[in-house]
Amino acid sequence: MPGRRLRWAPVLLAALLTAWAAPAHAATNSAKRAQAFAKLPDWSGIWLSDSIDEDAGGNLNNDPIKFRRPPPYNAEWEAAWQKRKEELKTKQTRGCLIDFPITMESPQPFKLIVTPEETVYLSGDGMWRQIFTDGRPHPPKDKLWPTVTGHSIGHWEGQTLVVDTVARSPGYARFIESVAFSDQARFHERIRMTGKDSMEDQMTIEDPVAFTRPWVLTLGYKRVTFLDRLDPYYCELDERIDFDKDGKMVIKKPAEPASH
Known about the structure:
- The chain has helices spanning 2-28, 31-39, 75-89; strands at residues 46-49, 110-114, 118-123, 128-132, 151-157, 160-166, 171-172, 180-181, 186-195, 198-206, 215-224, 241-243, 249-251.
- By secondary structure, the chain is an alpha+beta fold.
- It has one domain (46-251).
- It has a 9-stranded mixed β-sheet, with no helix packed on it. A two-stranded antiparallel sheet has the order 7-8. It has a two-stranded antiparallel ribbon with strand order 12-13.
């Protein structure tokens, strides 16, 4: 009989797990969660930064890019940044992944997946962010390690997503002008719709080590209709993307098809 009890043990365990999981699954699809979904804004579709504007020649117009503007560095960090900018003028650079916060002004299209528990940012270059809105705090310091996107938590104030991000990897961000942040940098965002197909991210960056004051930027986005999906982008394989000696991105025209 002991053997029979052992044979039935996995079946009983599976039944108990199923009975335990059923209420959780039902709660996930409860009327309360459906109501929470109904309160969320419609951020569906494909979005592009309104700082990125291609002229007739195919060059990206960098003048409106907010992250090219001088950060409010203190004297020590300003000197290091200026030195870095000069170095970049004499070398070719290629930005395949664009770190946070620069990814929020990336030339790549992106999607936002909004649920009551989290909002996920997915960029065409493969960069992504998770913004948890389920009420969790940031992890304690012994369980919080720096990453290129940091750790983001948020909450909704009406139709505005309020985000707090910490633990962004210190140092230079890949792409635009190579702005740098210390390990004490903290990022506050207020993301909201400003029109039927327009959105803004009011970002305030605090860095007591590098800045003399908070850096405030307003990033704008437009929902586009000429794209209906995100395609994987590998800049190592896409020879249409290049950079000139000043670090300016250049989009080459596609090669003419060979005639037969």
